[in-house]
Amino acid sequence: MSEVFERRLLTRDRGGTLLRKLWRIPWSFVLLLCALAAVGYVALYSAGGGAPEPYAAKHALRFAFGLVLMLSVALVDIRLIARLAWVAYAGGLALLVLVLLHGNVGKGAQRWIDIGPLQLQPSELMKILLVLALAAWFHRASWKRVGNPLFLIPPALLVLAPMGLILKQPNLGTALITGMVGAAVFFAAGVRLWKFALVLGAAGVAAPIAYEHLHDYQRARITTFLDPESDPLGAGYNIIQSKIALGSGGIWGKGFLQGTQGHLNFLPEKQTDFIFTMLAEEFGLVGALSVLGLLLLVVGFCYLVALRCRHQFGRLLAVGLGTNFFLYVFVNVAMVTGSIPVGGVPLPLISHGGSAMLTTMLGFGLLLSVFVHRDAEFGPVRD
Amino acid sequence: MSVRREEERRHSIFTRRALLLGGGQAALFGFLGSRLYRLQVVEGERYAMLAEENRISARLIPPPRGRVLDRNGAVLAGNQLNWRALLVAEQTQDVGATLETFSRIVPLTEQERARIEREVRRRRRFVPVAVREFLSWEEMARIEVNAPDLPGILIDVGTTRHYPEAEHLAHIVGYVAPPAERDMDGDPLLELPGIRVGRAGIEKYHDQVLRGRGGAVQLEVNAVGRVIRELDRREGVPGQDVQISVDTGLQKAIREKIGEGTSVVVLDARSGEVLAMASQPSFDPNLFNAGISAQQWREWTRNRATPLINKATNGLYAPGSTFKMIVGLAALEARVATPGDRIFCPGHMDLGDTRFHCWQRRGHGNLDLRGALKHSCDVYFYEMAKRVGIDRIAAMANRFGLGVDLEIELPGAKRGLVPTRAWRQAQGKPWNLGDTVVHGIGQGFYQLTPLQLATMTARLATGRAVQPHLTRSIGGRPVRGGRAEDWPALGIPERDLRLVREGMWAVVNEEGGTARSSRLPAQFGVMAGKTGSVQVRRVSREQRERGFKVESLPREWRPHALFVAYAPYDNPLYACSVVVEHGMSGAGAAAPLARDVLVETFTRLRTAPAPAGSRVAEVQGPPRP
Q1: CB of B387 closer than 8 Å to CB of B330
Q2: pLDDT in tens, B374-423
Q3: Range with the largest mean pLDDT of A307-321, B36-50, B345-359
């Protein structure tokens, strides 16, 4: 039986020519991404006051560029990607250090480096590179080996190092999301549940102490979250305005370009963080749920890729990337609906912003590479 | 344990956990959906109901339009209060019914109703539409009393443009009018009732600066649109004031001196600032405010004296003898004549079988350049033009601002025409030597504006490429171009310029000069200038031989009278050009007017305290006796 199994692994390992790889790309998924980018174009057209400038036209251009990037990455052999994972992770970490030393700070949180016309936020890129590194660490480990606490120390450090650097920026939201993405990979890799309980418990004890060390603006976010109406023109302003916009949108919305909140600039940062509010105000609950449905399909596809993949590396990668995308969407929509504190997270594929588009499409490139090379042979499991 | 069993175990754990994770995430999506449902549908007490009852209403606040000021800070274009009734479509169930009720209180004509309904359809529902502007006190009271029956109607005070100097500066300041469909550039401000955009002159050129940016206010209103409280306010940016270089007193004094068909331009010779620019007749820009009547428009556009057209920038004239300085400079630069070269004028010049006459039938005898300018001898310049050629004359004219776009801040100002051989050939016609000869005395195809002639004079006086301009400061910040050093040198040898200036000096100040009788009174210093008379109609040989007199011609065939001048001669401060349509002779009609204009300029500008940044009152020596 064992022989049969190994032979099957070998025969299933089809690298294939470039053309065959292209054939294996799931084009319906690419179409789904195009649909979301089109939604983004419509929303940004509205955010630009009913004109392609200054947002929508750039958005389309960036998406086109992202598509090329994604398809190029999709054709790269997944085993080559696995081998490069460590180098990429180290590079990402170096960028995080660089941005701390030389980066630009905006709005008290995000840090970026200017690369030509692009503003790269290394913390966004790092989440994808972390997933890569964790998948590379776990992919050949047996159930027994994953159970060994000593085996878990290096990957824990892999998560903590970027988290620490991002916290130092200081960007609490992104640091927490990075931790959650890491945790998802740990979970999928088979780390025992009681260990999660232990870490959560420790965090629960540490949280009140950490609160003491938070920046004032970070505390303000948490307190206004608990009671946004307490300070309507201060820190809670964004949430209230966003809720008014959502609420006044109703079921069918006010109509394209008819949103008063958005067009009279009561909505803050409507082209980035609050783009979803803009959509929900103009297209109502129907429009908002439709967009949410499309985004859910993207997350679902990530899990589909994970379940169909024949190697652990691809599975872990797909789950990690899916979780990363999910967290973007969840945090953004939860934020604009006033469900969690405002965190400055864009809505992927829809918000205006070059760096986020680039990292999102890079992530999908890796996902498609997993799908295209889902039967690749990685060598036996080790204890 | 075999590799295969190990792999299968790991796979099953992964599958279980991935499904768990994915399921959890799907559930959280469900949470977001329910949250949206609650906010957008269920949470009636708060947001949904606010929307249904329109309790939160957002309105744009138009910024006050910036003013246009003269060089002394006097208001040339300002804002006046205007009470008006507005209709906000989203605050009424039935626009038609509201208008019906309204017209029972304040009658509306059919056209007005059609306009209102058209605008309501075209604009977003939260943008108010003007129902009636310029309400009287009584009308306002009647509307206020009936407010409960008029949902969606609100009264507010807007502003309207007012031009205190009316027709005196209409050609420069321009006017505003409600924006047309093609003006809608995405600025939501333009959709507001009562907003005006610049249509001509400074109002048009600086429209963006004057307009400012709109603010907005978020109000909590009750079901009939009554404001309960202001939730939030986002301030706009008021339009900035634009100060122009014109001196209103001088402008008015000049306009009082001139008749129909006359235009006058006075420049600060060194900075290029336009101090006055008058063109008769003019119009009252205040009439454009409420929209001009078709009848008034017909009256203006059909008037042969063209009141809407600024003749100083859009009137096109041949320069006549005022062009002779350019021909002289071109000859000197091309080295086809030396300053001392004398030409004999027998009263005419023969070219083939064509005879070109000098205005002085007796002839001037031997003349050098200085003398030729002084007496305005045509034969001398026929000869010089023949030697230099038309293209080098045109190149010199362009350097003096003739036939080029001067970029004055008056949209639509003419560029004029300075012909070249290539230009004529592009029309499929040959350029003959006879054409060159005629163009040597500024006749022929030339089409120049009085502003260009004044610019030429300022450049002759200073030797710099002075650019005429009107804008002095925007929002209190001075703009570039207020000083002589801002302009590059023309690159013409000082020796040549001095020679031409001496000729212009002799025109006014020497016995026998063509404008000898128009000297400045001694206390104002010495003026240099050049006369010009331009035939409107060709005089035939037979007429000439029969002892033709221009006075016998009907008015519209009489020659135009021109004069260009600058003063003081040794330290030029002001340059001016005067064009009197059908004024017969430059010396008779234009030169005395130019003298009066310069006297007026000296008395007003040299005694007035110079505003900051001005150099007018500086470096002013005592007038030369």
Answers
A1: no
A2: 999 999 999 999 999 999 999 999 999 999 999 999 999 999 999 999 99
A3: A307-321
Tens-digit pLDDT profile for residues B537-549: 766 666 666 666 6
Same domain, B165 and B263: no
Q: Is residue B345 part of a domain?
A: yes
Helix or strand (DSSP H, E) at B16: helix B3-37
Spell out which residues of chain B touch residue A184, defining contact as CB-CB under 8 Å: 21
pLDDT at A222: 67
Residue B22 inside a domain? The answer is no
B321 catalytically annotated: yes
Interface confidence, given as ipTM, is: 0.88
Give yes or no: residues B433 and B318 share one domain.
yes
Domain of B465: which CATH number? 3.40.710.10
pLDDT at residue number B408: 94
Residue B485, judged by CB atoms within 10 A of its CB (0-12, 13-18, 19+), counts as exposed
pLDDT over threshold 50, residue B329:
yes
Confirm if B170 and B145 have CB atoms less than 8 A apart: no
Domain-located, residue B365: yes
- Asked if B473 and B264 touch (Cβ cutoff 8 Å), the reply is no
Active-site option among B245, B321, B473, B577: B321
Q: Could you tell me which residues come within 8 angstroms of residue A353 by beta carbon, excluding any fewer than 6 positions away? A: A272, A346
Q: What are A350-359's pLDDT values in tens digits?
A: 998 878 898 9
Per-residue pLDDT tens digits for B242-292: 999 999 999 999 999 998 889 999 999 999 999 999 998 999 998 887 667
Q: Are B221 and B55 in contact (CB under 8 A)?
A: yes
Q: Which chain B residue lies closest to A321 (C-alpha atoms)?
A: B22
Q: Are residues B341 and B199 in the same domain?
A: no
Helix (H, G, I), strand (E, B) or coil at B237: strand
Same domain, B226 and B265: no
Inspect the interface and report whether the beta carbons of B41 and A258 lie closer than 8 Å. Answer: no
3 state SS for B370-423: HHHHHHCCHHHHHHHHHHHCHHHHHHHHHHCCCCCCCCCCCCCCCCCECCCHHH
If asked whether residues B351 and B453 sit together in one domain, one would say yes
Residues B125 and B220 in one domain: yes
Q: Is residue B36 part of a domain?
A: no
> Same domain, yes or no, for B318 and B199?
no
Q: Can you give the pLDDT at residue A13?
A: 46
Q: Which of B220, B244, B268 is where one domain is finished?
A: B244
Contact across the interface for A292 and B33, Cβ inside 8 Å: yes
Q: Are A313 and A86 in contact (CB under 8 A)?
A: no
Poorest-confidence range of A260-264, B568-572, B587-591? A260-264
Count of domains forming chain B: 2
Q: Do B323 and B211 share a structural domain?
A: no
Tell me the CATH number at B155.
3.90.1310.10
Q: Which residues of chain A have a CB within 8 Å of the CB of B31? A: 339
Instruction: Supply the range of the domain harboring residue B200.
Output: 57-244
CB B151 within 8 A of CB B67: no
**Cα distances (angstroms) measured from residue B299 to each of B168, B190, B293:** 19, 29, 10
Which residues of chain B neighbour A244 with C-beta distances below 8 Å?
47, 50, 56
